[in-house]
Amino acid sequence: MIETKNLVKAFKNGSVETRVLKGVDFKAENGNFIAIMGRSGAGKSTFLYQMSLLDEPTSGEIIIDNRNTYTLSAEEKTIFRLNMFGYVFQDYALLPELTALENVALPLLMQDGNKNRAYKKAEEALIRVGLSTRFNNLPSQLSGGEQQRVSIARAVAHNPKILFADEPTANLDNESAQIVMGIFIELHKQGQTIIMVTHEEEYAKMAEKIVRLDDGKIISIESN
Amino acid sequence: MFSSLKLNIRIGFFLAIRQIRRASLWTTGLIIFVMVLTFLNLVVVSGILVGLIQGSVDAARTQYTSDVILSSLNDKKYIENSQNIVALIKTLPEVSKISARYQEGALFEANYKTRKATDKPNTASAQIVGISPGDENAVTGLAGSIAEGSYLEPGDYDKVVLGQYLLKQYVPVDSPGFSALDNVVIGTKIRMTVGEVTRELTVKGILKSKVDEVTRSAYMVDSQLRSIIGRNDGNVDQIAIQLKEGVDPIKVREALVRSGVDQHAKVQTYADAQPQFLKDIITTFSMLGNVFSSVGLVVSSITIFIVIFINAITRKKFIGILKGIGINGKVIEISYMFQSIFYAVCGSLIGLVLLYGILQPFIAAHPIDFPFSDGILVAPLGGTLFRISLLIISTLIAGYIPARMIVRRNTLDSILGRN
């Protein structure tokens, strides 16, 4: 379960303060697949970054599995992110000098320390996303869709509590985007909690719920 | 905690290896090249500075003092009881060969046959050294220093071998306080005055060396000098002792002192016999070498700092991603430290090969020609390894600081490329 209470995020530029999130209250239960939608500048990505502990909110609370993350140190947050979360970024965010297998295995290595186990799990994750023949390819040798699938494999290989996806289909062609969304639906069926930011209605409708944000506030929550 | 450190190191190493392996070959090559130059700067500059003087010390040892030298006490004209001392030295198992020398101040004159009453005599003052040609050559290889003419033989009579600086054609400077013999070549007759005795001698050979004591002396067969100076008691002025391979000269000096030889002679190792100015120069040059090395070390550290900083800055996004997916910041710092070590170790290894495989043997075979020495490259392995460790430590720090600076930045800012 993840919950935010009166979440505020403001950016300061000199003496000018811009509030991007203006007190967001939100709750997602385990196993939910939630799409966050909104127009450009609505604050959807900022909201995702706060929830996923990649950024510090200005005020408010983020409670994950009944634990208030406010008290966590930077190092604890890193460990929290490693063990609890998986991330899929718009631009894949793969390390260019690592092969697909190494990219997926890296967080597993950090978690477990056992190379054989990490590589085995990484292979399984890549097979799950349909990349069984691409283990040893560098990101530069993969198509955009394949890179995003490697990114998904990396995000889910360690069975995270929550998978955060920031515009995962934005850089993909329709066919690749469909494949990626198919993987998300499959993961959701297996009980994976997914929180995805998207601006594409078509893909948002594949989620269980759509949370709409505007001007830093949730304006609606729809069930599909 | 230890296991987490071990894990951080392992993953840091994993990342570093992959980054190095997939980095541009040119960039890696260039960084390593800079490290090679730094290594050479660290070792070779000071090595040559010290080597210039070491060449002089080595030459004095091999051509003049040998390993241990006995000379007359300051208040004595010669080494008393010389024959017994020589006998004692010969009983020492560490001793390989000895050469006993007679030494006396002499005045040499060249134009005594042709000069008019108003002409200034062409003279040069020098030490005349009486030697047993065989013994001396065995100990100091004096025959090898003959540049013109030939070396003395035991039966030579009224023959002299002159050091080059007694002859005008070899003296590099025309100093008003320094006189040398003019128009003297092999076969020329010169006149030597020792005390009240004057002898006409034929120049048999000319010695060329970078040891002052050799180049400013004249040599003749010991039996003849003995008769000239009227020394019939067998007491000599110097005894040069060559030791067997690997024997510590200090050990022999101590043995001689324990036997009471120091009552009759000054007992010195080759190092003791070095003039103080030479020791001072060695200290000064070592210091200068260290200063140059330190500058080199700072330059290399700055180079590595810049390289790692640029690398980390351009990879800021990936560093952010690593942190974002839960990779500990220490892992990232360690990976950059491994990369720095890689550059320093590669540079040092190539430098070692260049140093011991090419430079040192080459300079040993073709010493640097200095007026006072044949300069060699002094680079003892212990000192070189110490400098390598300094290089590695400095590059380690230089790699760590920029990595730490980038790692400490906000994770999201790094991922999104915000400043």
Total separate domains of chain B: 2
Range of helix content of chain A:
25-40%
The total count of strands of chain B amounts to 12
Mean pLDDT of chain B: 89
The number of helices of chain B is 12
Give the neighbour order of strands across the main sheet of chain A: 6-7-8-3-9-10
| SSE class of chain B | alpha+beta
Main beta sheet of chain A, described?
6 strands, mixed
Mean pLDDT of chain A: 91
**Structural class assignment of chain A:** alpha/beta
Total strands of chain A: the figure is 10
Largest interface, and how many residues on either side? Answer: A-B, 27 and 26 residues
Looking at how many chains there are and whether they match, the oligomeric state comes to heterodimer
Strand ordering within the main sheet of chain B: 2-3-8-5-7-6
Low-confidence stretches of chain A: none
Q: Characterize the largest beta sheet of chain B: strand count, sense, and whether it forms a barrel.
A: 6 strands, mixed, barrel
Q: Uncertain spans of chain B, ≥5 residues at pLDDT below 50? A: none
Separation of the first and last Cα atoms of chain B? 33 Å
Beta-strand percentage range of chain B: 15-25%
User: How large is the share of residues in beta strands of chain A?
Assistant: 25-35%
- The span between the termini of chain A is 20 Å
